[in-house]
Design a protein that fits this description.
heterodimer; A: 473 residues; alpha+beta; Heat Shock Protein 90; 3 domains; five-stranded mixed sheet; 13 helices; B: alpha/beta; Rossmann fold; five-stranded parallel sheet; 4 helices; 5 strands; 42% helix; 19% strand
Chain lengths: 473, 127
């Protein structure tokens, strides 16, 4: 199989997607061309001063019908053609389309006057498009074939081996011009063709190269980020060991394992235990965050989101009852498509949000959790009427260690890592998270917070084989 | 009374764990690296092994656990981890890691005693 694929594109989904989108675009353009051709045939005799001969009329009609015919075939089979570099792929479709189009255009040009045909300029257009998609050698070959075909056609016409089909009423004088003029015309035209191919090819190759450089830089950045996260993991782990040892020793003392401890020392030791617990929970949060950063969510599992939320609520039931919170969980999804992702991470993210909602709710507060969906997107909305987040601080809420000022004033403990972990998890799932405060159920006293998570319903095997409806346009 | 082997490279953890377990009447032997750990297990044949997952190398504990099982030593193992749960990397009792239970550090004295008792009871039932 003739490989038309540049090396860098073998596993590059964007490349294939671009080719597929362009192919579809050309298929649509071809329908338009057919319509224009037939419309031209229908009105030419009424609108213009020139006439088409019967042969020309029939020839153009046949050409239009042929184009329509193969375009429909390509259109139908388009989706069955994959993107595997080693098999027949959509790039081969592009090549077939180009060859067919060139043949039709050559015939069209011949039947409308060869070098006198106004359609001859379409060759340049055609070559520019071809250069953008196909490898250089193919397009140069095509340009050479066009030039040679034109010369051959002209030569055959001069020798009266084939009839010439000048449009009667146009460029009358050209028949009287010398063959040298035609030769210069064809040479200039071929030159234009080759220069267009050269320039387009060069520019698109530069663009591809630039794209590759960008991808390489991105890869390096990612690698640097991973190194950083691994370093953080290592360092924080090293810090964790002594803190754990300290905590174990305090536990020993408080448990009277070493000997009796008086009340005053017990109080201080309890403080020390509390502080070391704080340190450990912060360390765990940082470890979690770094680990999520390093995690590659490849094994997409089916996530049962409603079960997942119910589980979290079950675990938190005690806290909810303790604060006498009115909880409502409603599943208003219509599409209910399958959601794929890492269930454990999504559980952590949602559990963070739900526990925040509980933590920052007042006694007898309300929490609403609503699931909805729309256009392949799942929305999870968690609203409370707790203390809310001051407006100017809402943009910082996903930063590491950030704690809103009203939270700091409160007695509620926290490391400020929870929301950055949640954010990271949602981003890893190609989702978005946003925060609104005052919430939908808040009031002046308790503004509350609404968190909205948007997650794409991903269909398995989406990657490069499908182009979404948005990409068609 | 049951003999418990504790293998951890942190002297304070070794100290704390042995103190707690000794106070409950258990006999305790300790080692601070996998090599010594393997030696004391072979020599003393403890009823339970408490093993830290990370010693000099991040997977030392796992390798020792696997080695023990290969050598046909089926003493129950309680593994100390400092890897937090709730993340994809949390460990489950799987074929790959032949241990009987995991506990995330730090562990309170009460938790430690409870875990040890449960594991020892399980062994008792089997016999």
């Amino acid at each position: 199989m003739l490989s038309l694929v540049p090396d860098w594109a073998h596993h590059y989904g964007e490349f294939w997607r671009a080719i597929r989108v362009r192919n579809l675009w050309f298929i649509r353009l071809r329908y338009l061309a057919v319509v224009i051709l037939i419309a031209f045939l229908l009105i030419v005799n009424y609108l213009f001063s020139f006439r088409l001969s019967e042969i020309q009329f029939v020839a153009i009609l046949i050409i239009a019908v042929t184009i329509l015919f193969y375009n429909i075939i390509i259109h139908v089979f388009r989706l069955r053609i994959g993107c595997s570099p080693n098999k027949f792929n959509c790039l081969h479709t592009s090549l077939i389309m180009m060859v067919l189009d060139l043949m039709e255009l050559l015939l069209l040009v011949y039947f409308t006057g060869t070098i006198d045909s106004p359609l001859i300029m379409l060759f340049v257009f055609h070559m520019i498009i071809g250069s953008m998609i196909l490898p250089g050698f193919l397009v140069y070959t095509a340009a050479a074939i066009i030039s040679i075909s034109l010369v051959v056609l002209l030569y055959l016409e001069y020798l009266f081996i084939i009839p010439s089909h000048k449009i009667i009423g146009t460029i009358q004088s050209s028949t009287f011009l010398s063959s040298e003029y035609d030769l210069i015309y064809v040479l200039t035209f071929s030159f234009t063709l080759f220069v267009s191919v050269y320039i387009t090819n060069k520019i698109s190759r530069q663009l591809f190269k630039r794209e590759q450089q960008l991808r390489d830089s991105l890869e390096k950045l990612k690698e640097a980020e991973n190194t950083k996260q691994r370093y953080t993991l290592g360092v924080v782990h090293e810090i964790k060991s002594p803190v754990i040892a300290v905590k174990s020793i305090i536990d020993l003392l408080l448990g009277n394992y070493v000997g009796p401890v008086n009340l005053e020392i017990t109080n201080k030791l309890q403080r020390a235990r509390l502080r070391s617990d704080e340190a450990i929970s912060l360390i765990n949060d940082i470890l979690r965050f770094s680990r999520i950063k390093l995690l590659d969510i490849k094994n997409n599992e089916l996530v049962r989101i409603e079960e997942l939320i119910k589980n979290i609520l079950d675990v938190r039931l005690e806290d909810i009852e303790e604060k006498n919170i009115m909880l409502s969980f409603s599943d208003k999804r219509k599409e209910k498509c399958d959601l794929y992702g890492a269930p454990m991470l999504l559980e952590l993210a949602l559990s963070n949000l739900i526990s925040n909602a509980i933590k920052y709710s007042r006694q007898n507060g309300e929490i609403f959790i609503i699931l909805t969906d729309e256009k392949e997107l799942l929305f999870i909305e968690i609203s409370d009427n707790g203390i809310g987040i001051p407006e100017p601080e809402q943009k910082d809420i996903f930063l590491h260690f950030y704690r809103a000022t009203n939270v700091k004033k409160s007695e509620i403990e926290g490391s400020g890592m929870g929301l950055s972990i949640t954010h990271e998890i949602i981003v890893k799932h190609q989702g978005e998270i946003s925060i609104i405060s005052p919430s939908k159920i808040g009031n002046a006293d308790s503004p509350g917070t609404t968190v909205i998570i948007k997650l794409p319903y991903k269909k398995a095997g989406l990657e490069i084989d499908t182009v979404t409806s948005e990409e068609y346009s | 009374m049951a003999l418990i082997a504790i293998i951890d490279d942190d002297p304070d953890i070794l100290d704390a764990s042995s103190l707690v377990l000794k106070s409950k009447g258990y006999d305790v032997v300790t080692a601070s690296n996998p090599t010594d750990g393997f030696k004391i297990i072979e020599e003393r044949k403890p009823n339970l092994i408490i093993l830290d997952v990370m010693m000099d190398e991040p997977d030392d504990g796992f390798f020792l656990a696997q080695k023990l099982r290969r050598e046909n030593i089926h003493t129950p193992i309680l593994m100390y981890t400092s890897v937090s749960k709730a993340i994809g990397m949390d460990f489950n009792k799987s074929e790959m890691v032949p241990v009987d239970d995991f506990v995330e550090k730090p562990i309170s004295p009460e938790q430690l005693v409870a875990k040890v008792e449960t594991l020892l009871n399980k062994v008792g039932e089997k016999i």
